[in-house]
């Protein structure tokens, strides 16, 4: 937990990133955790700070100025990382949650804050005070673009190569104790690691080179990654010497780095695949733990046999072949047993790139549970009147015994996107349960193991 420094960050004259008042986060709401107001606060706090550093406007406590910084990227909000942050603050632990079903997976970075009202560690909301304490770490040391032992949380906030993050917060014990956490897509930096590259903030698109192609927000001096099919930053590794000859497998994509999951499928990329899989599994996990409400506000029961989906490259190949037609119509799956599909057209005004369209598609299929009165009941049985009703897209995603999915996204000639996802074994079987109702993991099928609240295939666990 960072110290709660009270000295203010001194700013030189810079153009500040104007806080957005209309960011569309699209994350599920939970009255006990973060809402859009908190999301906006964290989003603006991070990106305003990054803009200030890109322009050289943050003065250290003893000497020097942080920045200016080249290739400083604007952060985006991730609902999946928000769920990881929720697990860290649930029940207001004093440190990052180490319990088996809450521990932060490897490969992510995190900032954590805990406080009580008794000692004035938080006075307004825990997230507000957490953000301030992390930013104030800039005042504890002389300015440098490398991490020091007392500014590690500050380093996570300004790591120039990070592209996405999310935060969460909880107040517990009768409003006496609180925890807040932010989770970042890149791991924590170590002492001595570079937080950013010294240099001028961007003034044109060509200045943004870490994740090409990118654009420059000239006013904020922040880079924005455009095509989310871009590879990660270049790193140098030392190859391991072996006595076994190796061959490079065929990869159909012109940039194989971004096509490792399904190398034979050159029209898609890993960013879209991960987006599809993570957004599906996040929503399935919310349903499994009983956190999904119907149109009337009633929470659906918990799921005992909800399987974590894995990605299927053959399903993707078929889904993309159909998406490429831009027909806006369902596929003819009569020759493909046990496969079902969801389709949707996403307007170009709602998505800049295919990965955005994938995210909007998943949200559109799932949100019908909150709007449709022709819906599944508390027995969660799929009935004949659901077959052609909008609720079918939700039940397709939520079908507990489905194990794999594969998706395709195509930008059509009118600028819209046609999104197709195939599921196997498919659901929406009339008079069958969408899932078994009981405590999460109480009825995990053979070949899976419980990772609350989902039943994870043993092959994934390793």
TrEMBL record:
Task: Tell me the lineage of the source organism.
Answer: Eukaryota, Metazoa, Ecdysozoa, Nematoda, Chromadorea
Region Disordered, residue ranges: 230-252
Keywords (alphabetical) are: Signal
Q: Which InterPro entries match?
A: CAP_dom (IPR014044), CAP_sf (IPR035940), CRISP-related (IPR001283)
Query: What SMART domains does this protein's entry cite?
Result: SCP
Biased composition annotated in UniProt, kind: Low complexity: 230-249
Q: Which residues form the signal peptide?
A: 1-22
Q: Which organism is it from?
A: Heligmosomoides polygyrus bakeri
Give residue ranges for domain SCP. 37-185, 271-431
- Judging by the UniProt lineage, the source's domain of life is Eukaryota
Please give the name of this protein: Venom allergen/ancylostoma secreted protein-like 17
The UniProt entry, under SUPFAM superfamilies, shows:
PR-1-like
